[in-house]
Specification:
Helices cover 25% and strands 23% of the residues. It is of the alpha/beta class. The strands form three sheets. Strands 1, 4, 5, 6, 7, 10, 11 and 12 form an eight-stranded mixed β-sheet that branches. Strands 2-3 form a two-stranded antiparallel sheet. A two-stranded antiparallel ribbon has the order 8-9. The structure holds cytidine-5'-triphosphate (CTP) and magnesium ion (MG).
Length: 243
Amino acid sequence: RGVGVVVVAAGSGTRLGAGIPKAFVNVGGRRIVDWAVDGARAVPGVVHVVVVVPPAHVEMPIPPRRDVDVEPDPELTEALYAGAAADRVPVTVVAGGAERSDSVRAGLAALGTDIDIVLVHDAARCFTPAAVYERVIAAVVAGDRAVVPGLAVVDTMKVVGPDGLVVYTPDRSRVRAIQTPQGFARVALEQAHASGVHASDDAMLAEECGIPVRVVDGDPLAFKVTTPADLDQAHKLLASAPT
Ligand code: CTP
Ligand code: MG
């Protein structure tokens, strides 16, 4: 059985405000999307990565994996390393849509037929450690149809109504901040997306189908580059990383 990863990178990055799509912002000499794709294709068991980008960027070149000793070829665009050396995972680039869920559906449609476990990952979580992918994959392999990484929250959470008044306060010890990659049995993810509705994550669509969603441990390094402060954090991480 094969694991495929859909890396969604088609957002505009409004909150970051960089003037270009967020996934194409440079961090440490490479684009955010390059870090994310590299992370995904280094994970054991992953056999196909689909990158979903803004339609205007669909011809973008994908650099080879950093740990693979080959020269970058700027002409390469699609199905880049299919049929190349066995240690390379093919990367397919497709155009995304207006909402994140549209982009996920575009990616899902481009996955090879040999894939039966799908991970959906935000390109903006470009430094997600392999261990997070591995925990998610392990839980799906063990039989869960939907698995998400989550972290305990430090602040008290409140659900607030449109009038600005608190509706209720969930027990903080039971709340998790959810990250990606989110892993699914492929049939479950396809079922979750069949309705064509939009949600900020894929697990929510699975929940709405009555599919149980398991939470495994996330990692602070899987934070999402969302605001300029997050981008600063990403720069600092690389500056302090051992080379
Ligand atoms: N995404 C996508 N297609 C969209 C919207 C979002 O592929 N139509 C991707 C983003 O590229 C990102 C991930 O989904 O990797 C998480 O979304 P978010 O952090 O909200 O990114 P943006 O939508 O780009 O940022 P913003 O909401 O600030 O505009
Ligand atoms: Mg967004």
